[in-house]
Amino acid sequence: PADTRDAAQARVRSAPAPVTDVARLCVCDLLVAQCDANCCCDPDCSAEDFSLFTTCSIPVVVGDSQLCSQKAAVYSLDVEANPPERIFKLIDQVNPSIFCIHATNYEQALYLKSPEIPTAENFDELLDKFGGASFSAEPDSWNLDTDAQNSSEANETSRYEYGVPVQTEDAFLRLPSPVVSSWCSDANPAGFLVNQATKCIRSVSVEKCDSIQALSMLFYINSSILAVPKSSQMVNITVQSIVVQSVNGMRTLLSSSEALRLPMVLDELCINAVLGVNYHITHTDTGEIIEAAAAFVLGAISREALSIEQSFEISFTQENTQPVPLSGNPGYVVGLPVRAGFQPQGYPFPAAFLSNKHSQLTILHSTSTQDCLAAQGARAPVLFGYNMISGCKLRITAAMKCQPLAQTLLDVLKGQSFPEYVASFGNSQAQDVLDWVPITQLHISEQMISHALQSSCQIPVSLGIEVKWTKYGSLVNPQARIVNVTATITSTTLKQLPSGREKIIPITSSVIFTDISSPAEPSYKAWPTINIKLPFDFFYPFV
Question: Which stretches are tagged as biased composition: Polar residues (predicted)?
Fold first, then answer.
């Protein structure tokens, strides 16, 4: 009908409010909490930083070039000003193409949601849903309510972003930390996805300990956390555990953490004073907080104490995932373990890597007895950037069988479950297949003596691991990335010993890290060279 068509056209003619604020977009902002050189849209850059820029690497920022009309952020430098200044303009940009998008009313396309990772349990379900020639991606509802889109809250974020303070009903989640000196300041907000650990000194008085808020558990859990910024949905902070520390330092885990223990004076001691708090926040993949828990360490303070040291920590975990310790973000940090894993057997496709027991690459751990058979199962993690060597001694008798001995030594060198892959970055996720480097395994055998073929066997005596890595990314903040790992097993010939004779052979494991980064080419290589012969006394009287 005509009236229905006219109403639909009227809804289309009223342009919806932009979903993306181009003034907040910045594709050249690569460093967290640091100013990127010549990145004029970097919010971390100050006026002093802009005065040192030579150009704007990204002069124009737009949200979606397929839209018919949208805002564009234009950046430039006023080099004639003293000092030079950044100029920012927000203009309306019209798409000249007749084939353009007027309204983005498909809400599911406005944000990236992490896809469900296929596992052995949900593989059949996902195959039924997506295994056909086509599948439905129909949204639950189409939103054509332009009045709602034009509301003042259209541009407000509906999720937490990295580094944004975790909001509570009264202000923000406090994570006390030292500011200027070592004394505690309660004005430090906890940033979303920013794992922190702080220690600071708190001034106390035993006579007034029950009135000092920072010594009470209520101070850290009485404010509920907002599930998303500026929302009415609250998440209460639950008490996960309570550990009581005595005056001499002995700690006891309480069986029940339901009842709050408030500070009080008893026999010239202030008991139940908060010495440490460990927050654990659980969030969704879209940036919504769904759970919050706090673990407390309570202790006793003597009358003589004028101050105490408090420790605070906060960590974040995505729901339905197991927390995996990282070794860098993104590049490896020297001294942290090299992360490793293996691909499960029979997996329908290479979509995930399951970590080994400790999610680390390990080598033989040397023991005080130096006995290889006693050292079986003792492993030491391979630390990035540290060349390592370890070993043991094997006492061989004439009664030992060759094949069982060779398998035992192989288990000693490689461990019970030697990984197949190594994470290229310190924060590589299991589902990111391209972020895992396969371990190349080589076997080298020493030349066998011809007359000993009938009474000898091959046994492994050494494992050598070479890790090749390179500097990745910006020269200002290069990240360590592993590009190749080779594990070489060296075997030797063991001749049959006469009855009653023994022999001791050394077994060794080693790890070496090799930097294969290409050196940065200096700018002067672009200068022209002049081939000229100077007079022999040109530098006289200098040599």
Answer: 143-157
Under the banding of pLDDT at 50, 70 and 90, the label for residue 201 is very high
Are 188 and 303 in the same domain?
yes
For residue 454, CA distances in Å to 356, 381, 390, 399, 499 come to 40, 40, 33, 17, 17
| Per-residue model confidence as pLDDT tens digits over 238-253 | 999 999 988 888 888 8
Q: Do 332 and 292 belong together in one domain?
A: no
Secondary structure E strands in 246-366: 251-253, 264-266, 269-283, 289-302, 307-318, 339-342, 354-360, 362-364
Number of domains in the chain: 3
Whether residue 413 is found in the same domain as residue 277:
no
Higher pLDDT, 134 or 89: 89
- Domain presence at residue 360: yes
Q: How far apart (Å, rounded) are the C-alpha atoms in residues 361 and 355?
A: 10
Encoding tokens for residue 163?
A: 């580094």
State whether 341 and 457 are in the same domain.
Answer: yes
pTM, two decimal places: 0.48
By the 8 A CB rule, do 323 and 317 touch?
yes
Tokens coding 281: 């926040």
Specify whether 453 is located in the same domain as 490: yes
Domain carrying residue 468: 327-515
pLDDT of 294 reads 94
Buried b (16+ CB within 10 A) or exposed e, 128-165: eeeeeeeeeeeeeeeeeebeebeeeeeeeeebbeeebb
Residue 87 has pLDDT above 80, yes or no: yes
- Asked if residue 213 and residue 83 are part of one domain, the reply reads no
